[in-house]
C-alpha cells in the first residue's frame, strides 16, 4: 500500500530569481513607501497621536496589495508584488505577512514606550531584509519567503 505524504513545502520559484525587479528599484520603492508611512503618520497624528500610529500601521501593512500589487513606491518604480506560484497580484493578507518587519519598525518607532523593542526586534529584522535583498542573487527577502511572494517588473498580464 503506497501512502503519499502531504506536501509541506509550497511550490515557488522565488529562490530562482525569475522575473525579479532590480535591487535598486526595490530599495527606491521601499524608501518612497516608508516616506509615505511617515507622511500618513504626520498628517493623522496632527489630530491624535494614536490615529497617526494606527493609520500608518494599516497603510504599512496593506500597501503592497493596493491596486495590482503595487504600493505607491512600487507603482512609481514600475514594479509589483506577485504571489507565487500563480503569479497573481498580492493580497492584503500576503502584504501584511511580507511587511511584518516594517510594521514592527513603525509600531515600535512611533510609540515611545516601545522604542526599546524597536532597537532589539525591529531594527535587526529590517537589517536582515536589507541584507538578503542586497546579497542574494534572487533578491528575495524574509517577507517574500514568509508570504510566498516575489517582486517583479510590472507586467499588465499579471492583472487580477
Q: How would you characterize the overall build of this protein?
A:
By secondary structure, the chain is mostly helical. It has one domain (23-155). The protein contains seven helices and three strands. It has helices spanning 23-45, 49-62, 72-77, 92-98, 100-110, 115-135, 142-147; strands spanning 79-83, 88-89, 149-153. A three-stranded antiparallel β-sheet has the order 2-1-3. Strand 1 and strand 2 (88-89) form a beta hairpin. Helix 2 runs antiparallel to helix 5 (100-110) and helix 5 (100-110) packs antiparallel against helix 6. The longest helix has 23 residues, at 23-45. The model is unreliable at 5-10 (pLDDT under 50).
- Percentage of residues in strands: 5-15%
Oligomer: single chain
Terminal CA distance? 42 Å
Helical segment tally? 7
Query: Uncertain regions: pLDDT < 50 for 5+ in a row?
Result: 5-10
What average pLDDT do the residues reach? 86
Number of domains: 1
Radius of gyration: 17 Å
Which sequence of SSEs, written as H and E, runs from N to C?
HHHEEHHHHE
Structural class: mainly alpha
- Strand numbers in spatial order across the main sheet: 2-1-3
Number of strands: 3
Residue share in helices?
55-70%
Amino acid at each position: 500500500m503506497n501512502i503519499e505524504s502531504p506536501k509541506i513545502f509550497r511550490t515557488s520559484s522565488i529562490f530562482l530569481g525569475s522575473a525579479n525587479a532590480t535591487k535598486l528599484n526595490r530599495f527606491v520603492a521601499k524608501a518612497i513607501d516608508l516616506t509615505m508611512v511617515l507622511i500618513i503618520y504626520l498628517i493623522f497624528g496632527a489630530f491624535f497621536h494614536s490615529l497617526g500610529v494606527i493609520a500608518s500601521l494599516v497603510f504599512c501593512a496593506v500597501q503592497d496589495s493596493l491596486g495590482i500589487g503595487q504600493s505607491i513606491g512600487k507603482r512609481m518604480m514600475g514594479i509589483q508584488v506577485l504571489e507565487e506560484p500563480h503569479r497573481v497580484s498580492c493580497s492584503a493578507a500576503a502584504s501584511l505577512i511580507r511587511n511584518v518587519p516594517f510594521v514592527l519598525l513603525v509600531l515600535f518607532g512611533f510609540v515611545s514606550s516601545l522604542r526599546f523593542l524597536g532597537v532589539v526586534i525591529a531594527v535587526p529584522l529590517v537589517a536582515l531584509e536589507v541584507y538578503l535583498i542586497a546579497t542574494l542573487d534572487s533578491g528575495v527577502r524574509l517577507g517574500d519567503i514568509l508570504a510566498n511572494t516575489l517582486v517583479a517588473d510590472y507586467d499588465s498580464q499579471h492583472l487580477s
